[in-house]
Design brief:
It is a single chain. By secondary structure, the chain is of the alpha/beta class. The protein has 20 helices and ten strands. It has an eight-stranded parallel beta barrel with strand order 3-4-5-6-7-8-9-10, surrounded by five helices. It is globular, with a radius of gyration of 21 Å. It starts with 14 loop residues before the first helix and ends in a 14-residue tail after the last helix.
């Protein structure tokens, strides 16, 4: 059984969750769109938030102990870990290894260790007061307590190092920050391990609802631990993931963290049909808070027309989402720091135009790009316009899944995959579905959510 001392008892008085429940209660018959793209009343969120709050009071101290393993232990029963390990070993026997690494991992990633990413973060800020970084530890859909424990320890080390090297990192998202994903901290841990941690949940909650309640509670406790630890040291972005975790992230986790600290922001994806309604519900339920939102097109896509915006409409949807965000302070009376994440120059032009048209003192704008994916024209545009720019830096030893997902998003590679290029490249970067789940992030644990959220 794995237990840890969660930070101070502030987590027991989950003011953010309580405030959000109260705010949702004031929305009457308002609806949101769930993971099945069905319109359901916001009262469903409130009911689940109340249940989760109850269980958090019962199990406030259950989180992963942030131990200090020297290396990340690979789980050889995990197809993803095994494939990554084999690919890492295979690189040693390939010719011209430095060139190959430069083409793949070095272009998109910032190394394997915290030292590596800190070094690159320092380089970004040298001589450019408007430049900063967002550091993210690679890996998604962690399925074991060991994996969660390693993620916890890595982020604690990252928080310490960022706060030491960037003294203003905890002062309102104005300098370098960190980013984490809920699935790194418990949302996909297996039932057997969770039964040991939360026996009462499994004895009292029905069927699959017990498993997902335990998963969400475990992730909430772990991320609350990190947010409390980071308070005053570094600001944290909570990343969006596949659509099954959207309601938990936007309407449970983010409000819960926001109630205890103002050092937390959340990401919204333009490629989800539901996003505008999510933002509307969230801001109407929590109008008195200062919010930090980052928008992105989103890389997740499972072919579901009901859930995702069609591929050829993603740019339009992203611009519309940002226009909606820019109007939020006027519409809802909230204060908002908006970070627009896109490597598309025309998209960012439209966002900046909308921002300047509003000229609202309650609205601040930043822009964000991914390492290795930003063209010189966009960089020059951002520099010329004097907009703060964040570069998203990913590091860690699970770099191959991330790197190949980035390669698949490269326009040249996409053209090849669509049939206008080399068949070998298409075969390598668009494998059959059974191999995709082994080799790439974001396609594991496709089990459906119960009707909780």
């Amino acid at each position: 059984m794995t237990q840890a001392v969660l930070a101070p008892r502030a987590s027991l008085e989950n003011r953010g969750l309580q405030a959000h429940i109260k705010g949702l209660g004031g929305l009457g018959n308002e609806t949101y769109v769930d993971a099945r793209s069905e319109q359901v009343p916001v009262s469903r969120i409130a009911r689940f938030a109340e249940r989760l709050g109850y269980w958090q009071e019962r199990y406030p101290l259950v989180a992963c102990t942030p131990e200090d393993p020297k290396t990340r232990p690979f789980d050889l029963t995990s197809p993803q870990d095994l494939t990554t390990l084999l690919m890492s070993k295979a690189m040693r026997f390939l010719p011209n290894k430095p060139a190959l690494e430069n083409i793949t991992a070095n272009r998109y990633c910032s190394g394997a260790s915290v030292d590596d990413v800190i070094s690159e973060m320092k380089g970004l800020e040298i001589g450019n007061p408007l430049a900063s970084a967002i550091a993210n530890y690679s890996g998604e859909h962690t399925e074991t307590l060991t994996g969660v424990r390693v993620n916890m320890q890595t982020y604690i080390e990252l928080i310490n190092r960022v706060s030491t090297n960037f003294p203003n990192s905890g002062l309102g998202f104005s300098t370098s920050t960190i980013s984490l994903k809920p699935s790194q901290f418990g949302t996909y841990v297996g039932e057997a391990e969770l039964r040991e941690l939360f026996p009462e949940i499994f004895s009292r909650e029905p069927g699959d609802e017990a498993l997902w309640t335990a998963r969400f509670l475990f992730a909430l406790n772990n991320i609350t631990y990190l947010a409390n630890y980071a308070k005053g040291k570094v600001d944290i972005w909570v990343d969006m993931e596949d659509h099954r975790l959207t309601t938990f992230t936007a309407h449970i986790l983010y409000p819960s963290l926001l109630g205890n600290s103002d050092n937390v922001g959340v990401i919204f994806q333009g490629n989800l049909v539901r996003t505008g309604r999510d933002v509307n519900v969230l801001l109407r339920a929590m109008p008195e808070s200062e919010h930090h939102f980052r928008t992105c097109k989103g890389v997740y896509y499972d072919g579901s027309v009901k859930v995702y915006v069609p591929m050829d409409e993603r740019t339009r949807s992203f611009v519309e989402l940002n226009r909606f965000m820019v109007g939020a302070p006027e519409r809802y009376g909230v204060s908002l720091v908006l970070a627009s994440a896109s490597m598309d120059l025309e998209c960012q032009r439209e966002v900046l135009k909308a921002f300047r048209e509003k000229d609202n003192e309650k609205l601040m704008l930043r822009m964000q790009v991914l390492k290795g994916c930003c063209g010189n024209e966009l960089m020059e545009f951002v520099r010329k316009e004097g907009v703060p720019l964040d570069t998203y830096l990913i590091f860690g030893d699970m770099i191959f899944p991330y790197t190949f997902r980035r390669l698949r998003k490269n326009p040249i590679v996409e053209a090849m995959m669509e049939g206008r290029g080399n068949w070998l490249v298409r075969t390598m970067l668009k494998p059959p579905s059974w191999l995709y789940g082994m080799f790439y992030e974001g396609n594991k644990n496709n089990e459906p959510l119960p009707e909780l959220l």
